[in-house]
Amino acid sequence: MESAGKQVGVVFGTIGTTNFKIAITDPTVKRNDYVQARHEECGFVLGQVGEVQRETDLTIANAQRISTGEQVTVGEQFSGVVNIIGFRDENNVLQVPRTPFKAGDSVSVAEEKLIRGVLGLKTDIETGAYIGMLKGHPIRVYLDINNLVQKHVSILAKTGGGKSYMVGVFIEELLKRMVPVVVIDPHGEYSSLMHPNLNERDQKFMGRFGVRPRGYAEQIVEFSPDTTINTFSLPLKFDETNLDVKDILDLTGMKSSGPHVGIIQHAVKSLKEIAEDYSLHDLIQVIREDKNAAKWAIVNSLEYLEGTGLFGEAPTRPSDLVKEGKTAIVNLKGISPDIQELVVTRVLKKLFEGRKLGKIPALMVVIEEAHNFCPQVGQALCSGVLKTVASEGRKFGLGLCVVTQRPAKIDKNVLSQCNTQMILKVTNPNDLKAITQSIEGLVPGMDEDIQRLPIGVAIVSGGSLTSPIQVEIRVRETQHGGTSVDILQKKQAGAAPGAPSVLPAAPDMPGAPQGVEPAAEAAPATGAAAPKEVSPSTVFDNESPIVEEQETDLDYDDSEVETDESTESERKKKDRDPELEDG
Ligand SMILES: Nc1ncnc2c1ncn2[C@@H]1O[C@H](COP(=O)(O)OP(=O)(O)OP(=O)(O)O)[C@@H](O)[C@H]1O
Ligand SMILES: [Mg+2]
């Protein structure tokens, strides 16, 4: 878009108080650009370009003449609709003019100050998370970190839509501001935050976003329940001593009523009478002695717990996970879904208790693949604690960042507790419906925009923003770990000209992808041309980092909203073999 203050159109036709038409004088103006017009009573008012039309006088007959190679002169004119957003009055309250603009009023590119003021875009860099640029304008977008952490965030997109990349950007900002973060990382893709981004394509856009490659190795600590798979992680262990009735019910997923409760209560009571400390094993032995046959279900569940190896000496304390300025990654790569749920339950419980008692600093918990941990239909072991954190966490400074590729399949109570939404490309109709139903402030037609978002652009809504904005997400400082795996490796000789390459990961990088390239960057195995970059969305810089998505037949189109038991068990089966997914 042209520089701020430059005229792009003139008001004409029937003029309303919510929108008006403009005769476009500068064809570089685009849908969703921010414009301003001076209202006689209210001063400068911010608006956003809606539909843009090119009206031509080309008739069918003339179009046919063109098809035979004849030269035909075509007359054309551009018009557009501007939707009025408003202005700030003397009390800084957002207002909209109550009388229409006048025909002939000039409309120009909006000034940064007006955009920031009206949209509620933060200017305080010290407490803001820099996530990217306002689409179509050279304006940096900072989101208020306090607001994000206190009131929860959701990051929603289809698979490959750029969620994990965006989460990486967000965590970089939290690392810089020394905000503690705990990441539930089912695919082991966040340890790459330790390493600077050496991706050639990303590096081309770093200047534009004012970003430099940077690794945060000193601030990242990684834990895993299985250090034989995740060899670079510290062991994640839970305390097995003195488990009380509630702990046992939580860990086994047993109901809080029924004969089993009495059996557990009795066992806990008798152990407390004879020993200062008791182990899980002691508990099993005492329950085995009970006369009630219902004991066997409990014994089985507890023996399963014992066999997971999750409980043991030197348990991980909440204060090991949460430290000022550190990000703790809970790497669950290769861990079965049942154990993943157990780990998430235990970690969230401990963090919630830790915050309630003020034993750990305020923090943000990022939950990747959150639909698996609190499904809309059915129960995961951790559903309860996740819902509690979503509804009560803000009181105790425990922020949630919920990341999911299936907004339709995540518990709607959790989704609607997220005050800020970052929505990347979504195409599944049920997911779109879930988003539009659970998110306030989405204006009509926005579901269309969400489907058409290029990879790298997010619609951000809620928080301190007065209306949803489109943001070109900045490039990462750190290496992105969530790259896709090509089923066919590109042959060097057959590589498409100009196809970008990825520098190999540092050899010491945990879980570094070996010989793989990001899907959006790799040349198709058919030897077709390298994916072309979408024409620049802005004219303030000729290059845009926006990547055109490679559509594949693998793009799902399931029309099922509900997760029934069979699909749930399929998911678990699939998740048990995560190597197939992320190599
Ligand atoms: N803001 C961005 N700038 C540049 N490239 C991006 C951006 N966002 C995403 N990409 C590209 O798109 C690819 C897919 O992004 P990402 O791994 O974040 O998807 P995802 O939504 O997490 O997918 P999944 O649900 O499968 O985990 C990345 O490997 C990266 O190449
Ligand atoms: Mg991801």
Q: What secondary-structure arrangement, pairings included, does this model have?
A:
Elements: E1 7-12, E2 19-24, E3 34-39, E4 43-56, H1 60-67, E5 76-88, E6 94-95, E7 106-109, H2 112-119, E8 128-134, E9 140-144, H3 145-151, E10 153-156, H4 163-176, E11 181-185, H5 200-204, H6 206-209, E12 220-224, E13 234-235, H7 245-252, H8 259-274, H9 280-288, H10 295-307, H11 318-321, E14 327-331, H12 337-356, E15 363-367, H13 383-392, E16 398-404, H14 412-416, E17 420-423, H15 429-438, H16 446-452, E18 457-462, E19 469-473, H17 565-576, H18 579-582
Parallel strand pairs: 10-16, 10-17, 11-14, 11-15, 12-13, 12-14, 15-16
Antiparallel strand pairs: 1-2, 1-7, 2-5, 3-4, 3-7, 4-5, 5-6, 8-9, 8-19, 17-18, 18-19
The chain binds adenosine-5'-triphosphate and magnesium ion.
Give your account of this protein's structure.
The chain is an alpha/beta fold and 583 residues long. Among the domains are: 7-119, Beta Barrel (Elongation Factor Tu (Ef-tu), domain 3); 125-224 and 346-422 and 432-473, P-loop containing nucleotide triphosphate hydrolases (Rossmann fold, 3-Layer(aba) Sandwich); 245-307, no CATH class. 28% of the residues lie in helices and 19% in strands. The protein has 18 helices and 19 strands. The strands form two sheets. The protein has a twelve-stranded mixed sheet. Strands 1-2-5-4-3-7 form a six-stranded antiparallel β-barrel. A hairpin with a 5-residue loop joins strand 5 and strand 6 (94-95). The protein is elongated and about 95 Å long. Residues 491-542 and 551-583 have low confidence and may be disordered. Magnesium ion is lined by residues 163-164, 482.
